[in-house]
Design goal:
508 residues; alpha/beta; Rossmann fold; nine-stranded mixed β-sheet; two-stranded antiparallel ribbon; 11 strands; 42% helix; globular
Length: 508
């Protein structure tokens, strides 16, 4: 149903309720303003949108269907403007053992999720047959009502402060201008682009599907979204898996603050891996020499941006994001990808002409051009809408310098100023957990994104939960991502039976 049609239906429904309300000296009937949303008809349809659609035909071929769920823009005024949230569904085929809907979130924030029923059904195997697998593009993401601030870059929240005060001042200008552009483009909706509202959208999806509870699988930021949902809607969850656990107290507008040491450790571990393959990549025969190559690249970019092909100039503010992005996994394939990129960057640092690989070109296109603008806008709007704070421009500079000596790569990125410094204050306070939820928490001890300590903190907060730990892995995202039969089997056992392990478990 279109937004305009839904608004008319909502108005008509409200009018009927008002007309039929009976006022007496003893009671007044109050219409449930959320009832039209909870009881809306879900119009399932084919997922393909047009000739240029790549995802839709894949979903259709797998037997999935899609729908648009109407939700309030502002939950404090549900009779006002509405938006749509796009969802996909792979229906349960084992109707005898059907559990219900399993809603999926890939993190981000602002990661689209319509594809997830396809990817997660692979690792779930026969367990997937017991669930209606529900993918969701969160509000303002993907096929949902869109948001794009027109920034012309995709690196708003993953920029480094640079090497000196002059470079940092450039970042202040960039952050302020990005915030102003977004306010001019979407100031009317920015207060409602929040995690709490996405959790409320999830509850409308649950109700519209005719279910009393949702099961949930969330990665990284998706773990935080799951936590918020449990807090806002107690008793509405069935089986919950949080992979890469991010507790509310660690959720910050500077995404990697607190994870500097883990990322530097991941860099050293990767350097040792690359040194053992010096014959292949030529980055140095020892860890120290590989790290010296990295320092050479960073130093060269600080003096003059690196030219990659005919199109891209890579400066000291964006370059560190390429390294950090490559350190999210210790799988050989991912480490090899980073090594190949560093080999090319080393040549560019020596001012040799280089052409980007297909993978690197995709990364640069996303980070440096309008191709990443929508995603960066959505991610920034969500985080700033949740936890923006006015700390003062100088405070970020002090934090950068305090961290630079110990964490030369991660420190200036993790502590840099962001557009959130210039954002309006959030409409709601951040969520605080004061509940206890039976959930399976999955974490790696060396995760460089969501620290293992965060998983331990949620485990302590939720005594009814259980923690599944992969010891020694420097990996962000485990279930169906790491190739661990131990992890995949334990999670599938829980999703199959609904029974958590009797105690916390470990996988090597």
């Amino acid at each position: 149903m279109s937004t305009s049609r839904y608004s008319k239906a909502f108005t008509a429904c409200a009018a009927v309720l008002a007309a039929t309300a009976t006022t007496t000296v003893t009671a007044t009937a109050t219409p449930d303003l959320m009832a039209p949303f909870h009881g809306q008809h879900v119009d399932w349809h084919a997922c393909t949108l047009g000739a240029d659609d790549e995802l839709g035909p894949t979903l259709d071929a797998a037997g999935a269907d899609c729908a648009d769920i109407t939700v309030p823009l502002d939950y404090a005024a549900p009779g006002g403007r509405t938006i749509t949230v796009a969802i996909s569904r792979l229906q349960a085929t084992d109707t005898t053992h059907r559990v219900g809907p399993l809603l999926l979130n890939d993190g981000g924030p602002a990661a689209p999720g319509l594809h997830m029923p396809l990817t997660k059904s692979e690792v779930m195997g026969e367990v997937a047959d017991r669930y209606d697998l529900i993918g969701m593009d969160p509000r303002f993401v993907g096929r949902s009502t869109p948001l794009d601030c027109g920034w012309g870059l995709g690196s708003a929240l993953v920029r480094s402060a640079g090497a000196d005060l002059a470079a940092y001042r450039e970042e202040v200008v960039v952050a302020r201008e990005l915030a102003r552009r977004c306010e001019r483009a979407h100031g009317d909706v920015l207060p409602y682009v929040t995690t709490r509202n996405t959790a409320r959208d999830m509850n409308i999806i649950r109700a519209a599907l005719g279910e009393d509870t949702l099961s949930y699988l969330g990665y990284s930021y998706g773990s935080y979204l799951g936590e918020v949902y449990t807090q806002l809607f107690p008793g509405r969850t069935d089986r919950m898996v949080l992979d890469g656990v991010n507790p509310p107290e660690s959720y910050s507008h500077t995404l990697l603050r607190g994870a500097e040491a883990a990322n530097e450790a991941a860099l050293r571990a990767w350097a040792s891996w690359a040194a053992a393959r010096h014959g292949t990549y030529g980055l140095g025969a020892t860890r120290g020499k590989v790290l010296a190559t990295v320092e050479h690249i960073l130093g060269a970019a600080a003096r003059t941006p690196l030219r990659i092909g005919e199109t891209y100039l890579l400066d000291e503010h964006v370059l560190p994001a390429l390294f950090i992005g490559g350190l999210g996994s210790d799988l050989d394939e991912r480490r090899a990808g980073l090594a190949g990129t560093v080999r090319l960057l080393a040549r560019a640092a020596d001012r040799e002409p280089v052409e980007p690989s297909e993978a690197l070109a995709g990364q640069l296109e996303f980070l440096l051009t309008g191709a990443g603008s929508a995603s960066a806008s959505q991610m920034t709007a969500i985080i700033c809408g949740d936890v923006a704070e006015r700390r003062g421009v100088a405070s970020y500079r002090r934090a950068v310098e305090a961290s630079r000596e110990r964490f030369p790569l991660a420190g200036p990125l993790a502590n840099n100023i962001t557009p959130c410094e210039f954002w309006d204050r959030p409409a709601e306070t951040p969520t605080v957990l004061d509940n206890d939820v039976p959930a399976l928490l999955v974490a790696a001890t060396g995760d460089p994104r969501t620290l293992y300590a965060g998983a331990e903190a949620v485990r302590e907060q939720w005594p009814s939960s259980r923690l599944l730990t992969v010891v020694g892995a420097r990996q962000h995202g485990l279930y169906g991502e790491y190739g661990s039969a131990c992890v995949d089997g334990r999670v599938n056992d829980y999703l199959r039976t609904g029974r958590l392990p009797a105690r916390d478990l470990t996988c090597d």
